Amino acid sequence: MELNRRDFLKLSGATSLGFVAMNTLVFEGKPAYAKSGIVLKKLVRETTTTCPYCGCGCGFLVSSDNGKVINIEGDPDHPVNQGAACAKGGSMRQLAADNPYRMSTVLYRAPGSADWEEKSWDWAMERMAQLIKNTRDKNWVAKDGNYLVNRTEAIAALGGAALDNEECYLLSKMNRALGVVYLEHQARI
Ligand code: SF4
């Protein structure tokens, strides 16, 4: 198609106006949701957090209203996951303290029993401490040949990505003091 000078100016003008119109549509100063048709009824508090489940460290946005978590979704601004979430991270809402399905008491099923019994936290701590001590005493290895080793090979400790530095430090100390040599971390597996 051949364009003379006048046609060229007309076309340039029309194209520029088109861009202005498009820019007006896209950058009209309204938030993106205004164009989505979703009507937001009220503002809620939004905070960022990190997924506690694994070592990838995906970022999430937590929306809360009146102190209650009402939504958790992948943070689009987070460099690791850019808004995405795996099935496990996507179900993080279940961790919220106000989740009615979250267990709040200790349930114990005795060996051979088909029934669960409710127990107190004190009872559970006592029971775990006793079992750890029994296992350690029964499987203590003081010497390996001529070497003094002082360890138990019957207990293993597995840390989780939800633990912070200080908790990892304390758990490692406690396990070393108990003579546990099998110390692992979920994020390394
Ligand atoms: S569990 Fe899933 S969402 Fe959570 S940090 Fe790991 S990959 Fe990311």
Describe the structure.
By secondary structure, the chain is an alpha+beta fold. Helix content is 33%, strand content 26%. The strands form three sheets. Strands 1-2-3 form a three-stranded antiparallel β-sheet, with no helix packed on it. The protein has a three-stranded mixed β-sheet with strand order 6-7-8. A hairpin with a 2-residue loop joins strand 6 (140-144) and strand 7. The N and C termini lie far apart (65 Å). The chain binds iron/sulfur cluster. The site of iron/sulfur cluster has 11 residues, from helix 3.
What's a concise summary of this model?
By secondary structure, the chain is an alpha+beta fold.
The separation of the N and C termini measures 65 Å
From the helix content, strand content and strand pairing, which structural class follows? alpha+beta
- Rg from alpha-carbon coordinates: 30 Å
SSE order:
HHEEEHEEHEEHE
Provide the list of bound ligands, each named once: iron/sulfur cluster
Number of strands: 8
Biggest sheet strand line-up: 1-2-3
For the biggest sheet, the summary is:
3 strands, antiparallel
Portion of residues in beta strands equals: 25-35%
